[in-house]
Specification:
472 residues; alpha+beta; Rossmann fold; D-amino Acid Aminotransferase, Chain A, domain 1; globular; five-stranded parallel beta sheet; Dna Ligase, domain 1; eight-stranded antiparallel beta sheet
Length: 472
């Protein structure tokens, strides 16, 4: 087993990995920028080392991070998600320096990170993909010709994209012409590559992803699916496991497709195979994420499998502890991404000092976070502060528990997305498990309602206090 792990990340996911290390008797090493000096992951780790004053450069410096792992006696490195987690250069540098990379090989990361290469691999394996360009687009004229061939709407995507960036829907040739250079610019800035490709747009699909685990002994299993259809601008907000919108036949089918996809490329460690489900019940491969996902928590909740611990075990060369027939699910789990954003002000980021913080608790409630009372949220990073995960045996009960947990949670001093999620839980389509990726676009009033309801609740509370004092 590994003895000491450097965590090449920050915030909530770094804290999550530190906790797994503690349970496994493995020492943890945190890294931080000066902006993160007072962060929770720095306080929780066994050791912590500064990356310097720049809030971003240190977290993105492959060689400095790997050198630090070697210098501090770490025999492994966990990349978390975001930052360098899907950068093959990091995995390659670890291999050169004799540090175990907790994830797939550099070759596999590069292959699956290239969306066109991933599409080719899936087509060869017999996994259905959406109609699209055969490889990268040569120029705008090529894009227009291909779009005319497969029919609008189409999706223009960065070949190395991810996280909802470098992607535009185009409903007309004019849209495609307007967005072509924009997507290339985004791709170049965010991913260092100007390559883009085109695929048919599946209008308002369900976004279904399947968690897989593969070891170095030829074993590969899935741990059921997650429904990530509640999104805003291609960014996931609420995730559910299993999907309340699938029947058992669909569940078994998409799980089998995910294992087929993972086996086809010889996948090892934890990964996610993402699919789009259209209105006719057809699944299409979208992409493969070669890392732990933000929403891994809900899979853990319904299966009882610690995915981070399994990642570490697989990286250490151990075989999977479970066969497919030993993986069972129980109940439903929902994850809410608590973001430092103001829903009533176009989701403007909200940074600053958290004057008070209360994490929700009680039966079936888990909170993964990197914040505390007095913590100052820096303006340099992703806006996610914490994740609230709720579980219950039935869909109706998990919605009720989610509402109660969000009501219990208190984050004061900054704005958060909590009231927005409370409105979503009240929506009849969500409660009826009838939603797709167009849910929020079809319900713009949710933002307005969350703002108005919150004001009404505050006004009612003030009135109650005044009335109580008047009666004294």
């Amino acid at each position: 087993m590994l003895r000491k792990i450097l965590i090449a990340n920050r915030g909530e996911i770094a804290v999550r990995i530190i906790r797994a290390c503690a349970e496994m008797g493995i020492r943890s090493v945190a890294i931080y920028s000066e902006a993160d000096r007072c962060s929770l992951h720095v306080k929780k780790a066994d050791e912590a080392y500064s990356l310097g004053a720049d809030p971003l450069a240190g977290y993105l410096n492959v060689h400095r991070i790997v050198n630090l792992a070697v210098a501090t006696g770490c025999d492994a490195l966990h990349p978390g998600y975001g930052f360098l987690s899907e950068n093959p250069e990091l995995a390659e540098a670890c291999a050169r320096r004799g540090v175990t990379f907790i994830g797939p090989s550099a070759t596999l990361i590069q292959r699956m990170g290239d969306k066109t290469e991933a599409r080719f691999a899936m087509q060869k394996a017999g996994v259905p993909v959406t109609p699209g360009s055969d490889g990268n687009l040569a120029d705008e004229a090529h894009a227009l010709a291909k779009a005319e061939e497969i029919g609008y709407p189409v999706m223009l995507k960065a070949t190395s994209g991810g996280g909802g960036r470098g992607i535009r829907r185009c409903d007309t040739p004019q849209d495609l012409q307007r967005n072509y250079e924009r997507v290339i610019s985004e791709a170049t800035k965010a991913f260092g590559r100007a390559d883009v490709f085109l695929e048919k747009c599946v209008v308002n699909p369900r976004h279904i992803e399947v968690q897989v685990l593969g070891d170095h002994h030829g074993n590969c299993i899935h741990l059921f699916e997650r429904d990530c259809s509640i999104q805003r601008r291609n960014q996931k907000l609420i995730e559910i496991a299993p999907s309340p919108q699938l029947d058992e036949a669909q569940r078994q089918y998409v799980g089998g497709l995910a294992v087929l996809a993972a086996r086809a490329v010889g996948y090892t460690n934890a990964g996610t195979v993402e699919f789009l489900l259209d209105s006719d019940g057809r699944f299409y491969f979208m992409e493969m994420n070669t890392r732990i996902q933000v929403e891994h928590t809900i899979t853990e909740t319904i299966t009882g499998v610690d995915l981070v611990e399994e990642q570490i075990r697989i990286a250490a060369g151990l075989p999977l502890r479970y066969r497919q027939d030993q993986i069972s699910r129980r109940g439903y789990a929902i994850q809410f991404r608590i973001n430092a954003e103001d829903p009533k002000n176009n989701f403007l980021p909200s940074f600053g000092r958290i004057s008070r913080y209360y994490a929700p608790g009680g039966p079936g409630v888990r909170t993964d976070g990197g914040i505390y009372t007095g913590y100052t949220v820096p303006p340099y990073y992703d806006s996610m502060l914490a994740k609230v995960i709720v579980w219950a045996l039935t869909w109706e009960d998990v919605i009720s528990r989610g509402g109660r947990a969000l009501e219990d949670m208190g984050v004061f001093g900054i704005k958060t997305t909590i009231p927005f999620y409370q409105e979503i839980l009240r929506h009849p389509d969500f409660r009826g498990a009838c939603f797709d990726t167009g849910f929020l676009e079809a319900n713009p009033q949710l933002v307005e309602y969350s703002s108005k309801r919150r004001k009404d609740e505050i006004a009612a509370a003030i009135a109650a206090v005044i009335a109580a004092h008047a009666g004294l």
